[in-house]
Amino acid sequence: MKKIIKYVIIDILRNKIMLAYTVFLLVISLGIFSLEDNSAKGLLSLLNIILIIVPLVSLLFSAIYVYNSSEFLELLVSQPLKRKVIWLSLFSGLAASMAFAFLIGAGIPILLYEATATGFMMLGTGLLLSVIFVAIAMLAAVMARDKAKGIGVVILLWLYFSIIFDGLVLFVLFQFADYPLEKMMVGVTAFNPIDLSRILILLKMDVSALMGYTGAIFKDFFGTQLGLIISFLVLITWAVIPTWLSLRRFNHKDL
Amino acid sequence: MIIASNVSKQFGKLKALDNVSVTCNKGECIALIGPNGCGKTTLIKSILGMVVSDSGFITFNGKNIKHHWRYRENIGYMPQIGRYPDNMTIGQVLDMMKDIRGKKNVALDEDLINQFGLKEILSKRMRTLSGGTRQKVSAALAFLFNPDVLILDEPTAGLDTVSSEILKEKIIAEKNKGKLVLITSHILSELDDLVTQVIYMQDGKLCFHKSITDLKEDTGEEKLSKAIANVMLSR
User: What is the ipTM of this complex?
Assistant: First the structure.
């Protein structure tokens, strides 16, 4: 397994996109932190950018990478290797590279300017989001044989998680404004890893006071030790389940 | 050595394999023959586990290949269209395969690498290679680890005369060492001096599996190509 991960990582490192992504994150994070005189405010601006860029790059890069390595996968499958090992190595290689790029690009500036609990929370959720969206992209890539279709699905998924989901939630909230939905909202956030990460980070900041009654309910849940543990377990589930599903599909796939 | 029992595989509406049963033994050199799209490559890919059959099972040395993936250590496979990572060089591909598959105590068989002159172009990237050179890399990889079974899908397609002669010599040499060789080809005249058995497939079904002497006797023809043409027309 180690050998295949090694070849996957070497191949990704040879790809200039990964370097560009790291530099881009680094420039944006350093730029924001040096523009704002209050680094806590900088973190808030950075949050919004990271929650859009990290999932997008993880999804697109991983999906395209899986399609482009179809030759590599074909070559490996005819060799004495377990399919499970091949697929998990590809996942580990991709996830490790994405997480590493985030760690260098956003992690170093965060640790330099804002090494607080909020900063560490942002680092942790950012790393988890990188891994989660690699897993989702690999699931989409293994389900759709056609490259254009697979990448299209991945873009739609990103739109869904970043924009459409929030729209739906707002729509439901306004339609049922007369009913007490605040507690239910805590459960709904579990269905979107991006929202969950955003809430986890926002609640560490003072701005959570601006979120009204729902904010208070969130604080009641996510502010506790147990709530925090559950949230992280949910995030980890978001990485594990797509990986498991894609692995099952890959085990029976005809190459 | 390889036994396939009632293997079926369907791609959408197309029945690529329909209840195929084959037995292949050591020391045989078997030609898989049939019209285009009759399921030859699907059969080969099922044996390699690249295609998962819908029903039936395949055993290799008595073990079901579904649960024992290690059997592929004993197979050298040369695909019809060799596809390799584009931005790796020939040398890197060879090194990677040696790294992944090579065992310390097994001697590597680098005859083909030397004879095809791959040593001189080790630094060429895979995407810049011509179809024939790609075939040479595939062939070299199939023979590299001294496997007991060689599965060659259209081995000489795209190779020049000199190279295909080298490859044929190599196949005969390996066959004489008592290895099992499975070949598909459309150039039947090439198979004449290679094969000992013939498997004929049509529309996913296995039509017959005969030794070459039986086949020539039954059809009354001297050449394999004529004998097969005879069979195809009489169907």
Answer: 0.85
Question: Which pTM does this prediction carry?
Answer: 0.90
Nearest to B229 by CA among B97, B219, B138: B219
Nearest chain A residue to B100, by CA: A3
Contacts of B79 in chain A (CB under 8 A): 74, 78
Side chain identity, residue A229: I
d(CA A92, CA A103): 16
Q: What is the DSSP letter of B104?
A: T
Q: Is the dihedral of CA A113, A117, A122, A123 positive or negative?
A: positive
Closest-approach residue (CA) in chain A for B41: A255
Amino acid identity of A203?
L
Phi, psi (rounded to 5 degrees) for B86: -60, -45
**pLDDT tens track for A139-197:** 999 999 899 999 999 999 999 999 999 999 889 888 988 888 878 888 888 899 999 99
Phi/psi-derived region of residue A113, left when phi > 0, alpha when psi is between -120 and 50, beta in every other case? alpha
Strand pairing category for B55-60 and B63-64: antiparallel
- Helix, strand, coil % (nearest 5) of chain B? 40, 25, 35
Which residues of chain A lie closer than 8 angstroms to B97, CB-CB?
79
How open is the CA angle A218-A223-A224, to the nearest 5 degrees?
120
Chain A residues at the B interface, defined by Cβ less than 8 Å, are 3-4, 7, 11, 14, 68-72, 74-83, 252-255
Using an 8 Å CB-CB cutoff, list chain A residues near B72. Answer: 78-81
Q: Contact B221/B189 with Cβ under 8 angstroms?
A: no
